Amino acid sequence: MRVEIVPYLKDNYGYLVVCEKTNSCAIVDAGEAAPILAAVAKFGLAPTVIWSTHHHPDHTGSNEEVAAALKIREITAHTSDRGRVPGQTRELRDGEVFSFGALTVRALHVPGHTMGAVAYFVSDGEQRAVFTGDTLFVAGCGRLFEGTPEDMFASMRELAGLPSDTRVYCGHEYTEANLRFAAHIEPDNADVAADILRATVTRAGGSPTVPSTIERELATNPFMRAKSAVELGDRRTRKDTFK
Ligand SMILES: [Zn+2]
Question: What is the pLDDT of residue 243?
Answer without folding.
Answer: 85
